[in-house]
Structures are given as structure tokens and as C-alpha cells.
TrEMBL record:
GO molecular function, one term: ATP binding
Ribosomal protein in keyword set: no
SUPFAM superfamilies for the chain: P-loop containing nucleoside triphosphate hydrolases (SSF52540)
SMART domains: AAA (SM00382)
InterPro entries for this protein: AAA+_ATPase (IPR003593), ABC_AA/LPS_Transport (IPR051120), ABC_transporter-like_ATP-bd (IPR003439), P-loop_NTPase (IPR027417)
Domain ABC transporter, chain residue ranges per copy: 4-245
Domain of life from the UniProt record: Bacteria
PROSITE patterns the UniProt entry points to: ABC_TRANSPORTER_2 (PS50893)
Keywords recorded for this protein, A-Z: ATP-binding, Cell membrane, Membrane, Nucleotide-binding, Transport
UniProt protein name: ABC transporter ATP-binding protein
Amino acid sequence: MSLFAARRLVKRFGGLTATDHVSIEVEAEEVHALIGPNGAGKSTLVNLISGLLQPDEGTVELDGVDLTPLPSYQRVRKGLSRCFQVTSIFPGATVRDNLLLAAQAHSGSSFRFMAPRNAEAALQDRAHELAVRVGLDKEYDRIAGALPHGAQRKLDVALALAADPKLLLLDEPMAGMGPEDSARMVELIQLLRTDMAILLIEHDMNAVFQLADRISVLVYGRVLTSGTAADIKGNAEVQSVYLGTEVHA
Ligand code: ADP
Ligand code: MG
């Protein structure tokens, strides 16, 4: 059984079917990328999976738990974290305080039996460890909102990691990045993949072809095809969907 499975998800907006019986699975330690032209239903699918939208039909399951009836914050507790494209950052606070807040929010009862001073030290350790993990330790005492875009995206990833996810949902992590920052984000995702499964929605085909074990192509709310990078590059239907775009990396 797969670690994660979205099964036959349907979402209608009035007469428009944004996702039409979409099924997608992610195995443990797999990076599964989802690509597709504008309007294909990628964002709708991400919102159905993270719980911002309720499906008209279908289910979402992680590690044997049916997440479909749960709101977003409870899905996070069950191991599904999503990056929110910087919007979850407190711009006026330091990197440290952003991470401390996130670490505290997800600490649950883990510090309950510690003396307050030890609990505080454990939280500080956890926050710093998150900064190191995404490569923000040098920016630790800087104000988050004053960081360059690429660093803010890393902080966003670190905030999602605070929940210790089994599945990390990355919605266009390279959006608005130059080639240097994109390359660093690819490196970061390569590091993370050893610890968690990743569902990656991304326009940057180079990044997708470097990272993905499997790629699914969404078109008009349906999965057109799924396969390895080589399968997708050689698929004539995919090429016609992406006519004018660079599919060959
Ligand atoms: P993508 O992220 O792949 O570009 P979206 O999921 O944003 O695609 O959109 C899929 C389709 O659903 C589009 O035709 C879009 O206009 C429509 N859609 C998305 N969200 C809404 C909404 N809240 N209300 C009405 N239509 C929507
Ligand atoms: Mg979108």
C-alpha cells in the first residue's frame, strides 16, 4: 500500500469540473511531481489534499488514516505538511522567532514532563536544527521579511518541517526564483527526500526532471499520464500539451 493516496477526487465549481476523478499516489521516500498547463487543476488538487477545499467525491489517505473529513490543521498533525508560498511567515519576526513559534506549535505534549528550563532549551535546539536543515543558520537573527525571496522560501519549508511531516506538499517552490536560488532549492529537496515523501507541483521542468521519481501530467482536471522523466519526455501527447514549452531538459 502507498504511503499516500488521493482517490478519485472530484471538485466542481458550478458547471466546471476542476478535478475529474483524479487519483494520485506517493510512496515512502518518493518524489512524485505533478505538472500541467495553467487551469489544469493543480492548485485545486493541492487544496483538496491539504484540506483547504472539500471534495465533492473521493478520498485522501495518509499512512492508513482517512484524512478526508479532517480540516487542514488536523491533517498537519497526521503528517501532511504544506508550504504556503511564504504567506505563513511572520515578516516582522526574526528567523529564530518564526521557527520557535512553529516548533512550539507542533511540540504537542513532548515537553510536558520536562522542567520549564529544559523545555525552553529543547525548543531552542529544535528551532536551530530546523534553520540548519534548510541552510538558514547564518540568517538566524535576521528579520524574516527583510530576507531575499529565496531565503524566505527556505524559511517557509522549515516552517512546514516543524510538524515532522510524512508527506511534504510543495506548491511551486521555485516560483519567482532565479537559476541560483532554484538550484539551491533543488539541493534542499534532495536532502529532504531521504526523510519524507514529497508531492511537488512545479513549473520548472528542469527541476522536475532532476527531482522526480515519477511525474503525473494533469490536463483539464484529469491525469493524462504518469511515468518516469524518460517516459514523460518521450510522450507525444505530453509534448503536444506543452507545445511551445521546453519539455526536453
Ligand atoms: P492550475 O493550478 O492547474 O492552474 P486551478 O486548480 O487553479 O488550475 O484551476 C482549475 C480550473 O478551476 C480553472 O478553470 C479555474 O478557473 C477553476 N477554478 C479554480 N478555483 C476556482 C474557484 N474557487 N471558483 C471557480 N472556479 C475555479
Ligand atoms: Mg495553480
